[in-house]
Specification:
Largest sheet: 8 strands, antiparallel
Number of domains: 2
Structural class: alpha+beta
Helix content: 25-40%
Distance between the termini: 80 Å
Number of helices: 5
Strand content: 25-35%
Radius of gyration: 27 Å
Shape: globular
Number of strands: 17
Length: 353
């Protein structure tokens, strides 16, 4: 994929969309998304799945598309992350993609146990096909996928990386002009892959209740080409958890983005002054942009470790140590040169005497 193809969907090609997906306000407001000093439920959900399934990418707490832009997140979109929802800045860019499938599965983080056995705290018998998850006194996450999901990934990752590095300054500046509250360049994401499902259920265990449990049932009926899905849940069995259910109905579209993969860019902090080339400041003409040597490309996911701004700080420290080492070496060389000069003059004076 050429840079011209990517550039076809510029920041001027569409108005700002409402969001890629939004935080679950209906559940967060009633159950409490977080408390002072505690992780929010969407952070618990993302972190738990990222540790167990890093290759799938960034798990969204609310995968559904928005009202003003009713379309799923697609490969080539540019957006940003805020409290586990993704605001979209552009329409997706045409590119060659690789199609994959994600089979129905219950994705559980570490510490979560699942089963259909008896519940010592249950107020009644479980319904047939009901599944339960428990995570006593620990934080945990579950993504229930009852129907196969579709995966898409670009086959031009190198071009995507070059493009976002080249144009990140314009995207960041434009986002700030819009007053979106984006203060960090690395919050902007170029999507390189997604998994989109028809429906889902997300579960977050805050970790403060001994008998924390979630129980629900996904009823899926196949009748020829018609697939009907209905979620059923008993509130008496759900305690100490935050739940978010996907849509139900007949022949649901695959527009629920459960996982996002992509590129982010961060500037490396420099100790020594860079060599200046031409005028100071970025060239407003995108065609005049040079490759940015001080830009670091970060991927979502980052295997095997999760990246955060601390890594940029570590690079700063490493560069500082390198600069101090160079200064120390230069000082030692100058000291040694001065010492040898004094010895030379002393020997010469003694020989003349």
């Amino acid at each position: 994929m050429s840079s011209e193809t990517l550039r076809a969907s510029s920041m001027h090609s569409s108005s700002l969309s409402s969001y890629w997906s939004s935080e679950s306000t209906r559940l967060g407001a009633s159950l409490g998304s977080s408390t002072t000093g505690a992780m929010a439920h969407y952070d618990i959900f993302r972190h738990g799945l990222a540790m167990m399934f890093p290759a799938y990418g960034h798990a969204l707490w609310e995968p559904g598309p928005g009202n003003l832009y009713p379309a799923a997140v697609a490969v080539g979109d540019v957006g940003y992350i805020r409290q586990e929802y993704h605001e979209q800045l552009t329409l997706n860019m045409e590119n060659h993609i690789e199609i994959g499938k994600l089979s129905p599965h219950n994705f559980c983080s570490a510490g979560v146990t699942s089963g259909t056995g008896s519940d010592p705290w249950a107020k009644g018998p479980q319904e047939e096909g009901e599944v339960s998850f428990s995570c006593p006194n620990h934080q945990g996450a579950v993504l229930c996928l009852p129907i196969q999901a579709k995966g898409e990934d670009t086959v031009a990752s190198a071009d995507f990386g070059k493009w976002i590095i080249k144009h990140i300054d314009r995207w960041f500046g434009w986002a700030r002009q819009l007053g979106l509250g984006i203060d960090r360049m690395e919050d902007i994401v170029l999507v390189t892959g997604t998994h989109c499902a028809r429906s889902w259920t997300n579960v977050a265990f805050p970790g403060w209740q001994e008998d924390a449990q979630a129980s629900f049932r996904a009823k899926v009926d196949h009748n020829g080409d018609t697939v009907t899905l209905n979620w059923q849940s008993s509130h008496e069995r759900n305690r100490g958890v935050v739940l978010n259910y996907g849509p139900d109905g007949e022949n649901l579209p695959e527009d629920q983005c459960i996982f996002i993969r992509g590129f982010r860019v961060a500037r490396k902090l420099k100790i020594l002054p860079p060599r200046l080339k031409g005028a100071a400041g970025p060239n407003p003409d995108p065609e005049g942009y040079d490759e940015e040597p001080d830009a670091e490309l970060m991927s979502i996911p980052t295997v095997p470790e999760y990246r955060d701004p601390l890594h940029i700080l570590l690079e700063y420290i490493a560069e500082l140590l390198l600069a101090l080492t160079a200064i120390w070496f230069l000082f030692m060389m100058m000291t040694w040169h001065g010492f040898m000069t004094v010895v030379h003059y002393t020997v010469s004076d003694q020989m003349r005497c």
